[in-house]
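ARCHIVE CARD
CATEGORY: sequence design from structure
SOURCE FIELD: tokenized fold
FIELD CONTENT:
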């Protein structure tokens, strides 16, 4: 980096801190303001912030690596988590169901679902603990990617026995922590909006430059080798036609010595990842993603922020395709696929390089700040105020908000010293610890008999098994083994814990169903309501079920369409464009025009 580059990055960092500090007074009014913005943040800002939060450096480096090494089919591998296909489910029904609870955190939602007696409190506590663990894992993941990226440019040496990428990550995290801790969700949202503008400028520049690149019919790519094969990287020959193909193959035929040979059973992997997405999508999400729905004003704005979020997020994919195309054009300069992103940025002229690095730092910091703010809420709202000091003063509540944020950050940064690469931690997050949480989070919406004990036992079993897998299991085992273990134990614990204990009190379930109106096995509770109310709920449920079958392919087509544009596969682009338009028209009539600010509950509009 030259002096101009450092100046651009420095101006950006100072601006972020100033914007964050500007909102300190407004955010510190109370914890509702600090963690939810008093439900007064506009839907478009929440959606733009969500997009910025999903577009992180670590995830971008992984996806660019997969698309660079495997081609356009690498998109399907990232269905496991990085594509965020659960946005389709949030958009159609999970987002509005979550908003109707009027709570601050997913853990607090548990008392809405299971009551505030022993089972509800246990479910809330276990959810808070598992969410904090997930937050720490996500911070570690962001720190590794951000550290590897920035370490390539800042020239920081190894110091005090710690690697350079640790210090690069520390710089990024400390600066983001300053405005996150000071300004809460207000600062997070508005700095994300500002950073989103910078991100889009970076995307536009990269996409235009990469579009001018014409790839040869044959070229070399690089893949990492297994430790048993000596480690390092190896170059492989591929063709432009094969590299840009989006038609799934049952077997990729990757050399067995490559780390990526774990994806050779491609057809099985895709089906498995889609199954996982359906489970996660219909079960809902947590942490910073669900926090934006809790902060929305009403049903309609929950839907609008989802639509805007998904549309903006689609522009991540021309950026990823552009980086992969650019990386291929660098020929033998690439060895580690996870370093394609910094390798491309390194080729840029002075000034442009600083601008793009600032944009990518914005992507990293916007994801980090959202995660920390949401994670701290679990400590303050669900553990400290619920179990330790319910009568804490406003000053104490804010002090614990600040301290929780700092502890989460320090712990996550410390764990970066023990993780080898980005894909390692992301695979564990999505396929192990995430799998341990998905079953109880799914069942909570659709089965009236699930109680707080079953939910808590299932969550605990899944989380503990995921941690033990990380500590004890051989790295050579496929990811889906971890998923099967964690989700299997979680399912067993959930069902056993539920059936061996008494059902949740009926009035609690009636209140939940009255406000949320989910579909599923609710006949035992539905019979308590008037016929007119049930008819209205059924009508809404049928529209949502119909719409989700089009929302998921709409999102896939929208994302892949932009990739094909950058890769100049005009045949694929036209087909995907037509499908996107068709699905959009269907969703307009089946979903969008039914968005409402009012929720009808048994002849009373609330």
């Amino acid at each position: 980096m030259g002096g101009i580059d450092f100046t651009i990055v420095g101006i950006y960092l100072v601006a972020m801190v100033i914007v964050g500090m500007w909102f300190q007074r407004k955010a510190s009014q109370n914890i509702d303001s600090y963690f939810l913005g008093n439900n007064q943040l506009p839907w478009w800002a929440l959606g733009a912030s969500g997009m910025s939060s999903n577009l992180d450096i670590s995830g971008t480096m992984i996806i660019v690596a997969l698309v660079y090494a495997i081609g356009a089919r690498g998109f399907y591998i990232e269905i496991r988590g990085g594509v965020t296909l659960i946005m389709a489910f949030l958009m159609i029904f999970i987002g509005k169901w979550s908003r109707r609870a009027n709570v601050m955190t997913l853990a607090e939602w548990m008392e809405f679902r299971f009551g505030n007696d022993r089972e509800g409190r246990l479910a809330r506590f276990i959810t808070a603990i598992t969410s904090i663990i997930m937050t720490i894992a996500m911070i570690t993941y962001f720190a590794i990617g951000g550290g590897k990226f920035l370490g390539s440019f800042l020239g920081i040496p190894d110091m005090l026995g710690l690697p350079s990428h640790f210090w690069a990550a520390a710089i990024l995290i400390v600066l983001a922590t300053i405005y996150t801790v000071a300004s809460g969700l207000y600062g997070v949202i508005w700095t994300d909006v500002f950073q989103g503008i910078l991100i889009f400028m970076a995307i536009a520049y990269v996409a235009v430059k990469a579009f001018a690149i014409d790839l040869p019919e044959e070229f070399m790519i690089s893949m990492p080798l297994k430790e048993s094969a000596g480690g390092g990287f190896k170059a492989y020959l591929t063709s432009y036609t094969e590299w840009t193909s989006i038609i799934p193959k049952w077997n990729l035929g990757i050399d067995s010595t490559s780390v990526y040979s774990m994806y050779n059973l491609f057809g099985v992997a895709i089906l498995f990842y889609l199954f996982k997405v359906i489970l996660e999508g219909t079960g809902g999400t947590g942490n910073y993603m669900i926090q934006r729905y809790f902060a929305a004003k009403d049903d309609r704005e929950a839907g609008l922020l989802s639509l805007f979020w998904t549309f903006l997020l689609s522009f991540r994919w021309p950026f990823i395709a552009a980086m992969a195309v650019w990386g291929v054009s660098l020929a033998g300069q690439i060895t580690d696929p996870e370093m394609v992103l910094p390798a491309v940025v390194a080729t840029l002229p002075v000034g442009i390089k600083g601008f793009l690095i600032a944009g990518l730092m914005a992507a990293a910091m916007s994801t980090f700040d959202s995660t920390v703010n949401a994670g701290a809420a679990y400590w303050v709202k669900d553990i400290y105020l619920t179990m330790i000091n319910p009568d804490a003063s406003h000053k104490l509540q804010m002090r614990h908000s600040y301290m929780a944020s700092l502890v989460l950050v320090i712990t996550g940064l410390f764990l970066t010293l023990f993780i080898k690469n980005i894909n390692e931690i992301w695979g564990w997050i999505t396929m192990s610890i995430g799998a341990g949480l998905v079953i109880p989070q799914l069942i909570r919406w659709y089965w009236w008999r699930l109680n707080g004990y079953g939910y808590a036992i299932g969550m605990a079993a899944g989380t503990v098994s995921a941690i033990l897998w990380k500590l004890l299991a051989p790295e050579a085992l496929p990811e889906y083994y971890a998923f099967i273990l964690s989700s299997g134990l979680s399912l067993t614990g959930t069902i056993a814990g539920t059936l061996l204990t008494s059902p949740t009190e009926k009035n609690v379930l009636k209140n939940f169903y009255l406000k949320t109106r989910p579909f599923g096995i609710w006949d035992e509770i539905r019979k308590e309501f008037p016929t007119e109310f049930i008819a209205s709920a059924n009508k809404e449920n049928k529209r949502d079920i119909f719409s989700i079958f089009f929302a998921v392919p709409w999102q896939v087509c929208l994302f892949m369409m932009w990739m094909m544009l950058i890769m100049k596969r005009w045949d694929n682009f036209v087909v995907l464009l037509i499908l996107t338009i068709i699905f959009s028209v269907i969703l307009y009539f089946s979903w969008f025009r039914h968005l409402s600010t009012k929720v009808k509950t048994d002849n009373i509009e609330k």
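CARD ANNOTATION: Residues 164-211 form the longest helix (48 residues). The chain is about 70% helix and 5% strand.
SHELF: design records, drawer C
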